Each structure stands twice: as C-alpha cells, then as structure tokens.
Amino acid sequence: MAKAKTYNVLGTDLALTRYSGVPAAVPLESADSWGTLDLQVVPGGKGGLPRKGQVSDIGSASARANLAQALVLRLLTRQGALAGLGHPDYGCRLTELIGELNNERTRNLARLFTIQAIRQEPRVVELLDLSVQTVSGQPETIHIGFAVLPVNDDDPLALALEVSL
Predict the structure, then answer these.
(1) Chain centroid to CA 78: how far?
(2) Strand ranges for 33-156 from DSSP E
(3) Quick one: CATH architecture of 7-164?
(4) Which residues fall within 8 angstroms of residue 70, CB to CB, at 6 or more apart?
C-alpha cells in the first residue's frame, strides 16, 4: 500500500532559485553554477491597500519545489559558510573543485561531495540515482543529476545542476 503523501512536511520557504515557478525551457529541478540565486518576484497585490499599476511580491516555494530548492541551495553553498549562523556543517564541498581539471578524479570528488551533502538533508529518505558527467562543448562544466526519495512520498524527485569548475 502506498504511503500517504504529506507534502507539508517538506515545508515552505522564499523562492530563491531563479527557475522556481518561472515559465521557461529550464524546469524547476535545474540550476546552473554559482551566483545565480535571487529572490523570485511574482504578481502581488492580493492584500493590503489597493495600488495602481503592476504590483510585485516575493514568491514562495512549497512541498516538493521547496525540497528541490533546498537541495540545490545546499549543493551550491560552500560547506561551513553558515557556521556563524549556527550551521557549521550546512553546505557542500563542491566549491573546492573550482579551478580543478574536469577529469575522472574531479568528477569522482563531485560524486562524493554530492552524496555527503544530500545525506545531511533530513527530508530525504534515500539517494536513488546520481550521475556526474562532462557537458558536451563545455570542458570546464560538469552536469550533476540525481534522484532522491523524499520523506512520506513514493515518487522520486529528480534534479540536475551544472557546475563550472
């Protein structure tokens, strides 16, 4: 018998990845390299005083979208960067690979660092699949694709990101 899906345990947060909920050819479960994170702006004006013209607000990511965003942010954040906020183990060591050659050793380290970071996420039951490959025509870039099983969910969540070395 299938588990009841309780997406509320995956939480809600501000939408930070530029692909969250934005209609584009790139799906939510993708991100690219360093420095592409920003607050998502969505149509607003659903409360408060009426305003003239276009009104914008800060977007949010909930349930599976929130978990996807959290995993991407964890992978793109240098491990230890949040130590001053009380989270010394948060993040990933992928940033240590910047400047390295795109060879088997580097891709194996990317696999290891990705596994270590995903294991830190309490909303992930299991890492189901992981691939780290060279991007055709971009020798300085690796493509990391993976699938996880979220808590209280029988449907895997697949994500991908590209990291510039």
Answers:
(1) 13
(2) 41-43, 56-58, 60-62, 124-135, 138-150
(3) Roll (3.10)
(4) 11, 13, 121, 123
Helices (H) and strands (E) in the chain, counts: 2, 8
| Burial (Cβ within 10 Å: 0-12, 13-18, ≥19) of residue 111 | middle
CA-only gyration radius of the chain, Å: 17
CB atoms within 10 A of CB 8: 10
Q: What is the pTM assigned to this prediction? A: 0.73
At 152, which amino acid appears?
N
Digit-coded pLDDT (tens) for 17-41: 544 333 334 444 444 433 444 455 5
DSSP character for 71? H
b/e per residue, 35-65, with b = 16+ CB within 10 A? eeeeebeeeeeeeeeeeeeeeeeebebebbb
CA-to-CA distance for 67 and 149, rounded, in angstroms?
11
